[in-house]
Give the backbone structure.
Amino acid sequence: MQKRALLIVGLLWSGFGGGAWAQKSSADGIAEYRAMLADGNPAELFEAKGEALWKQKRGPKQSSLERCDLGKGAGVVRGAFVELPRFFADTNKVQDLESRLLSCMETLQGFSATEIAKTAFDRGEQTTITALATWIASESRGLKFNLPQDHVAEKTMYEVGKRLFFARGGPHDFACASCHGEDGKRIRLQDLPKLTTNPGAGNGFGAWPAYRVSNGQMWGMQLRLNDCYRQQRFPYPLFGSDATVALGVYLGVNGKGGESVAPALKR
């Protein structure tokens, strides 16, 4: 704890150009701080919870999710995360990990997908999906992103996501590209990855789900994208919306070849 406190003090001091810390960038300091916390990343608790929930018989049908097809075959988890979002024939939709889990919870366990989607983030079965997504992501840690673009629906969603990424609007005329469309941007002390090309797209997309130290919450990609819209002063697109899935396709395809580090640790 004392080492962490000294590092934070040094990081703040570097912002004022003081002492030896002035030779180190803020980004380097934050990277060191994350590395120190990584050994005890609270995401591990969500991983354990997610694995247990995957095997647990739940819902009106009292069934587990062990027959859920995430794109690699029924029950196959390893490698699924780095190939999502993708098209699923049974739903006739392109789905990301969280929306796919929602479909499986409805078909296999009997939950109402509509009701869960309307639930506030970090409440009820939304927390179940976050935990499941955290564990599933951890099973592909270190693998390279390789989202499929074979089906016409996947190609269409990529183009929709691209347009959404650059679309400006809201009271401040912001777009996703306003923060993540070029190199060298920063908010507070944190560098913002450029999400149109690698390595930025791989690093940015490949880190979620992630544990947010600032609020003590586990965030999946759905919440991450919804909160970006909130910061742009847009209404929430809502859970599993086509807009958030399309953005996920755009970011994931741009990040092809990038290594998944999820679940990560974030500010």
